[in-house]
Write the structure tokens for this entry.
Amino acid sequence: MPQLFNAATNSYARGSLMAFASLPVLAILVGMTLSRHSPNTRQNIPLEQPVPFSHKHHTIELGIDCRYCHTSVETAADAGMPSTETCMSCHQHIWTNSPLLDPVRQSYAENKPIVWTQLNKVPEFVYFNHSVHINKGVSCNQCHGAIQDMQIAYKSRTLFMSWCLECHREPEKYMYADPANKELSPREQVFNLYVKYQKDASRHSLSGMEMNLIKGAEQHALSTKEGRELVKARGIKKEQLTDCWICHR
Ligand code: HEC
Ligand code: HEC
Ligand code: HEC
Ligand code: HEC
Ligand code: HEC
């Protein structure tokens, strides 16, 4: 009787079995890579909004404070989104004919809020709180990039767990200090994103460091020692910050 299977078949069989067994693993890996690819996390992509609202225009150029529109950022979990009335407090008088503002006027007339496209979101099972971070002196720019320099806003951090943990492990590396004076007054500095620009009539009189501040480029790096002192001075409970229950409660 002729041989039905030659010697090589064995290794084919083994090979294909292994390939088959590794399929789920491969699928998970591909799935993970795809779901974390920027089109899905929508990182760095300005998304369409009902009104082409410019942060750059309203913050750096007009000098409106973040808290004028995101009113609860210091006191609550949510930062809060501006109501149509907030826009109309100015746009009842300014640019009253601009077609770009049609949806704002319509929302006002019909008493229906504008539905903005959401950029940043953590899953339901994650607890996040703005006020805690703001009160310990974490700047908006650490988590949102240089919003004050964006024409159309985009999400600029992944908001992955690993990203949160990077800072929670070593908050001393991410604390903001005013580059001009190393005296650390965290709370006031959080909103000091572009006041220097407003004070100076022209950008040319700004130092490179101040310019970086406006652009939200990484802030004045503290030495490890300064950082540790700062974390202590602010009463940050570093030891607990990586416990699962902090974010999953
Ligand atoms: C005049 C009102 C106004 C001011 C001032 C303002 N914002 Fe906004 N902000 C908006 C509006 C409207 C949106 C929604 C449209 C958009 O995403 O651009 C928004 C969206 C955002 C988002 C994205 C929200 C999401 O969907 O995840 C962030 C982050 C943000 N603002 C941060 C800031 C920061 C930081 C400042 C100060 C530097 C600031 N804003 C100042 C009106 C304002
Ligand atoms: C404190 C006053 C103030 C508030 C509040 C304000 N704006 Fe404005 N906005 C302005 C001014 C001033 C300009 C135009 C200035 C210029 O052209 O130099 C402007 C321009 C605009 C433009 C550009 C219009 C065009 O035709 O180019 C849009 C769109 C706009 N604002 C939307 C909004 C929205 C949406 C809100 C509410 C979330 C808002 N603004 C809140 C003062 C304000
Ligand atoms: C430690 C990181 C961090 C800091 C600092 C931070 N944010 Fe956020 N922000 C987030 C996260 C995470 C979300 C998504 C929250 C969610 O899904 O509930 C968010 C969402 C938002 C939103 C959308 C509305 C909301 O509340 O969900 C706005 C507006 C916003 N942030 C504005 C600001 C402003 C203004 C500042 C500074 C004063 C700031 N953020 C500082 C991480 C941060
Ligand atoms: C740039 C630094 C930084 C980043 C990024 C950051 N955090 Fe924090 N977080 C802090 C600091 C500082 C504290 C304050 C700790 C304290 O008060 O002792 C804190 C505290 C917290 C707390 C404790 C709140 C409480 O009630 O005590 C939670 C929950 C939290 N962060 C969630 C998150 C989540 C979720 C993310 C990511 C989406 C995140 N943080 C990203 C720096 C950061
Ligand atoms: C500083 C906040 C923070 C802490 C601390 C934290 N997580 Fe998370 N976790 C997140 C965020 C944000 C997400 C959602 C984003 C993501 O999936 O990366 C998440 C997602 C998850 C998921 C969903 C699976 C996934 O990767 O999408 C699991 C499981 C999880 N966390 C388990 C844990 C465990 C176990 C611990 C303790 C060792 C822990 N987490 C500590 C913020 C945190």
In short: The radius of gyration is 25 Å. The chain has 14 helices and no strands.
